[in-house]
Amino acid sequence: EELIQKQKRIEEELVKKKQAVEETEQRLTKESQGMLQAQEETWSCREKFLQEEADNYKQKLARMQTFHVELAQLLQIKDGEDTVDEQLESVEPAMLKALIVQEIDKRDVLTTKLGQMKLKLGATKRQLTSQKQLEAENTKLRAEYEKAKLAMERMATRKAKSFASVTSLPVQQRSCPSERNAGKENRLAIIKRQLDEDEAETIDLRTTPRKAQRTKHVYVASRYLSK
After folding, report:
1. Which pLDDT band holds residue 215 (cuts at 50, 70, 90)?
2. What is the largest CA-CA distance in the chain?
3. Cβ neighbourhood burial of 212 (10 Å; 0-12, 13-18, 19+)
4. 65 near 107, Cβ under 8 Å?
5. How many domains does one find in the chain?
6. Full-model pTM
7. Which residues does 103 contact at the CB level (< 8 Å), separation at least 6?
């Protein structure tokens, strides 16, 4: 009865650990999916905003260049034309020079901002690429975890079968009372040692897949040496 109760406790602990692992896995999967979706939406909105801002700067720069071309053409017109003389008379040289300097400064500022926007856009694209790589790695780790989980379930099944085979050892009927008592004590010692080994070798399902695989190899080696 003591051995049966001990086996039941081990089975209950395994069931509880499996349930805890499944609940943790579901929660982590749900949280990771939500985080990935939120990050993708954030980066998409940011990339769209930066692209629109870069397009606006390009349009402003194009308008400034057109204005500079028209202004240069206006300054290069011959003095003999009456319409040009009338326009130049209404503009003082100092004011015209200040206007040109101001427009050149604006163009330089827009060019600098456009370069900064290009750098930010490149950084955003690189971050999106790294995010996709991280998602692929998470998928790979999840597959490895499933394989390790399946291996642990198979190991638990083998342990249960081993326990059943040990408890069903044939009893020698034609023996004296002292021999029967000695055989019974030997069987009880074997069963207790087997339960202690199984309980000591019970794998914590909260470990990582790689650690679970290493523990599995140690378990197989100990079985081989015990034989």
Report:
1. very low
2. 141
3. buried
4. yes
5. 1
6. 0.32
7. 64, 67, 68, 71
